Amino acid sequence: MTRWLSIVGLGEDGLDGLTPAARARVATAEVLIGGARHLALVGDHPAEKLTWRTPLTATVSDIAERRFRRVVVLATGDPMWFGVGVTLARHFAPDEYEILPTVGAFTLAAARLGWPLGETETITLHGRPLDALTRVLAPGARVLALADSADSPRAVAALLVQRGYGPSRLRVLEHLGGPGEAIRDGSAADWPDQPSADLCTIAIECRADPGVVTRSRVPGLPDDAFEHDGQLTKQAVRAATLAALAPLPGELLWDVGAGSGAIAIEWLRAIRRTRAIAIERVAARAAACRRNAATLGVPELVVIEGEAPAAFAGLKAPDAVFIGGGLSRPELAEACWRALKPGGRLVANAVTIDGEAALLALRGRLGGALTRIAVAQCEPIGSHLGWRPAMPVTQLAVRK
Q1: What stretch of H or E contains 159?
Q2: Given strand 31-34, what is the order of strands in its sheet?
Q3: What's the half-sphere exposure (Cβ side, CA atoms, 13 Å) at 127?
Q4: pLDDT in tens, 13-55
Q5: Using an 8 Å Cβ cutoff, are 74 and 36 in contact?
Q6: How far is 194 from 212, CA to CA, in rounded Å?
Q7: What's the rounded Cα separation, in Å, for the pair 219 and 371?
Q8: Residues of the chain with CATH 3.40.1010.10
Q9: Where does the chain hold its CATH 3.40.50.150 domain(s)?
Q10: Within a 13 Å sphere around the CA of 266, how many CA atoms are in the beta-carbon half?
Q11: Which end of the chain has less Cβ packing within 10 Å, N or C?
């Protein structure tokens, strides 16, 4: 199939910065698509011109309707790095399009700062909750973030202060690669209350306040990291549960009877590009799930308030399922097993004798491994120290 769709990346230097091949695609285009800023760069061009519509899928349909004409999409920088090329590549076959990138904002920012790009966290704030930044914060970490608007640097500075990273160094890089290139420098705590350029890159060198509690992405956060009413898989058992669930990039988890949402949240924090749905019937707990997800940097967690298994209707099939409660209803585990993809993992925990009996019966039907997890904490007993055991947890882990 002839490649009729060209996705051309533009920098601050506009058409002058294009390769000869990219300039030729623009010059011979029958249809040009882009934002108003990009289309203005081509001037009096005879091609049909379309600007992006909302939602973006509407413009994807416009492009599809012009299949086999010479269509050129004008994008910013590297279209495959948080750019429109990612969306278009999902909708068109590889032999229909070509991508001609220019040097992107992250590459330019790393060059200006002298940062090894392979050792730097890169995120976008375009159309994403600001709380997602929390996930990559750690003392000594370097982060490059694509701004969402002129107010993004102020919002980022405020979030850093709120999360205990006020001493972090911020640099805002504006109009990289163009004649108006500029870099503003300061700390999050003292960032000025003034807007930046709409299109800018925010560089963060993370420095924590003295005594601030930092959060590892390794599963097993302290229990007090979560807002909960007691319905919480405790730290040691949670770490063992995540190990049994074994998240991989791109996989989807159902956290059934989510309580505080701790299992789903730690699943998302552990591995990039994972997805999770927390299903919780109690409204107050579902609300706490959402707050916990935002606080711990994974606001993308989908929280469904409803009773399982009825709440499963219309959901995408999971790669892993965790059942934290409700084992007294055999239909719940059976519905989870039916929904699970082949090769998927089901993990269920129980603390009561009834729950353990249900796991034994489930193992008899499905197979898998049963594990008893017993944890004791050292605590004062009078003037001495002793071990105070928590209730043991029985865990079933089975692969479909």
Answers
A1: helix 152-162
A2: 48-51, 31-34, 71-76, 5-10, 97-100
A3: 6
A4: 889 999 999 999 999 999 999 999 899 989 899 999 999 999 9
A5: no
A6: 28
A7: 19
A8: 5-102
A9: 223-399
A10: 30
A11: N
- pLDDT tens by residue, 202-235: 999 999 999 999 999 999 999 999 999 988 999 9
- Give the pair of three-digit tokens for residue 162: 């709120």
Specify which residues 5 forms β-bridges with: 71, 97
Counts for the chain of helices (H) and strands (E), in that order: 11, 19
Query: If one looks up domain 5-102 in CATH, what number appears?
Result: 3.40.1010.10
Q: Please report, to the nearest 10 degrees, the dihedral formed by the alpha carbons of residues 365, 366, 367, 372 taken in order.
A: -90
Peptide bond into 309 cis (omega under 30): yes
SS3 state at 206: coil
Q: Strand 252-256 and strand 275-280: pairing?
A: parallel
DSSP 18-50: S-HHHHHHHHT-SEEEE-HHHHHHT-S--SEEE
Tokens of 35: 């934002």
Q: Is 112's pLDDT higher than 70?
A: yes
For 106-205, CATH gives 3.30.950.10
Burial of residue 142, with CB atoms counted within 10 A of its CB: 0-12 exposed, 13-18 middle, 19 or more buried: buried
Rounded to 5 degrees, φ, ψ at 4 are -95, -15
- State which amino acid sits at residue 346: L
The answer to whether 177 and 103 have CB atoms below 8 angstroms apart is yes
**Residue 155 · residue 194 · CB < 8 Å:** no
How many residues are listed for the chain in this entry?
400
Q: How far apart are the first and last CA of the chain?
A: 40
Percent of the chain clearing pLDDT 90 (strictly above) = 91
CATH topology of domain 223-399: Rossmann fold (3.40.50)
Considering only CA atoms, which of 394, 235, 247, 374 is closest in space to residue 327?
A: 394
Tokens of 290: 């959402």
